[in-house]
Give the backbone structure.
Amino acid sequence: MNKYLVLAIFLLIPFKGSMAYAGKSLTEKLEDKYFSALDGWVERGGRASEYQGLVLETCGKLVMAAANASEAVAFTTTQKEEFDFRVGICAKTTVHRAHHQSEFDDPKLVQLICDDGTALFHKLCKRSGLR
């Protein structure tokens, strides 16, 4: 079954960036939807009871939406650790918006995350006030 999932992702991903609706690509619309869900969690005070079901799941969807076709395939097969890492960064920067995370007091760590060239990390850092 896993090979069918990979095949479906491989076949469908090229279309996600080319489809446009109301001036935005499907990728942009998905990112907006997932960022909106994370914004709502922050606005509600960042309840711990919603962390697993909302923040982590939404971050996983956001990471996949932001991935290019080869990354998406790799995340489901050979690079699961990289996927988990990106989800973790997404979750940590989102939590930071509601509850201060002391590791972000280190400017070197913030630079490593926010300036690494990953567009999603840049957006997350900007949204969380780290940039």
Q: What stands out?
A: The radius of gyration is 15 Å. The chain has one domain: 2-14+25-128. The chain has a mean pLDDT of 88. Helices lie at 2-16, 26-43, 51-66, 69-76, 80-98, 107-114, 119-128.
